[in-house]
Amino acid sequence: DPPLPSDAVESLVSYHLGPILDVALAGAGHWTAIDRMRHVGSLRGAIEISGARVGPRLEEIMSVLHRGVRDDDDDSEIYGVFFSCGEAVGRYVGIHEPLGVVLPRLDGTAPGPSGGPRDLRAWFVLLSALVLGASAGEVGESMPRICHSIRLAASREDCASNQAAAETLLDACGDLVHAAAPSLVAPGGEDAPPPAQADMIRCLICLLGCPDAFGVGAGAADLLVEMAPGGDVPTLLRPNFRGLLSASAANLPADGGAPADFCAFDALVRAAGIVSREEFGAILPILEERLRPNVAPRAALAALGTLAHVLGGADG
Asked: How many whole angstroms separate alpha carbon 172 and alpha carbon 167?
C-alpha cells in the first residue's frame, strides 16, 4: 500500500476533487496509450487519497474502467493499469457501492442494452479487481448478492457460448472462493447449503458444461473440490442435488435441442457421482424426455451417454 497522504494533501485534493476527476476520466479515453495510462494513474491517485468521497462519481468511474478493460485487453500494460485502478476502488472506496454498478451489468438487470460477450467479460474482470482490492470481511458480507448475480450471468448466452467470457467468469469464481472461503466452503452434513454457496455451485456446474474447447472445465472442477468438505464433491452436491437438477433441467429445450444444451445437466450428473445413483428416480424422467421419438438423434445420443454413465457406476 502507498503511504498515507498528509492531512494537507487530503484537504487539497478534496477541494479540487471535481476538476481532478473531470480531467482524469476524460483523459482515460485518450487515443494514445501513454496518455490513457497517465490519466488512469491520476484517477487511481485521486481514489487512494479521497476514498469514499469519489462516491458521487462512482458510476462514471466504473464505466470508464469497464471501457478501458474491454478495449485494451490486447495490451497487458494498459490493461493492468485499469485493473489496478479497479482494485483501488475496492480497497479505498469499499466494495458495496461499486457492486451496485457492476452486478446489474453481469446479471442483465441493468436498464438499457447489456452489450455483448466483450462487455460481459470486462465486467467480470472489474468484479475480480474489486474482490482482490476489498477486505475479506467486506467480500464475505457481499457474497450472497455477488453469487446470485454471477449465477445468473453464467446462464446468459453471452457467457455460455463465448470462451473469453467463460474464462473470465472462472477467474472471478476463483478469486471469490479464495477471498471468502468461510462463506463458500461446505461444513459437511446434510443441511441445505446457504444461498451463496448454492449459487456458486450452480455457476461452476454451468462452467463444467461449457464446450471442452473452452478449457474451463478442469478449473471449475478444482474449485468444487476446494469448496467440498474433505474434497468430496458428491458430499458437497448431495444436500441441494434435487434443486440443482431441477435448475439444469429447466433450461433444456422441449424438443431436445442440441447436445450443447444438455452439457450442464450432464456435467452435474457426472460430478455428483454416487449421489446420481442415489437420485436415479429423479434423473430418469428427465432422460426419458430426451429419448422420445421426436427428439433429434444427436440429442438422444447425449442423453443415452448420461444414462450409461449413471448405470455404469463410474464416479467420473
From this structure: 9
For residue 152, give the C-alpha cell: 445468473
Q: Which three cell numbers stand for residue 47?
A: 481514489
Q: Are 105 and 141 in contact (CB under 8 A)?
A: no
* Residue 278 main-chain phi, psi, to 5 deg: -65, -35
Amino acid 316: pLDDT: 43
Helix, strand, coil tally for the chain in percent (to 5): 75, 0, 25
Q: Using CA of residue 243, residue 244, residue 246, residue 250, what is the dihedral sign?
A: positive
Residues 6 or more apart from 142 whose CB is under 8 A from it?
95, 96, 99
The whole model's pTM is what? 0.87
What CA–CA distance (Å, rounded) separates 238 from 109? 31
269: number of Cβ within 10 Å: 26
Q: Which of 179, 171, 158 is nearest to 108 (CA)?
A: 158
Which residue reads 487530503 in cell numbers? Answer: 10
% residues pLDDT > 90 (the chain): 51
C-alpha cell recorded at residue 305: 451417454
pLDDT band per the 50, 70, 90 thresholds, residue 221 = very high
Interatomic CA distance for residues 81 and 64, integer angstroms: 12
**Whole-angstrom Cα distance, residue 234 to residue 214?**
24
What is the distance between the alpha carbons of residues 111 and 314, in angstroms, rounded to a whole number? 46
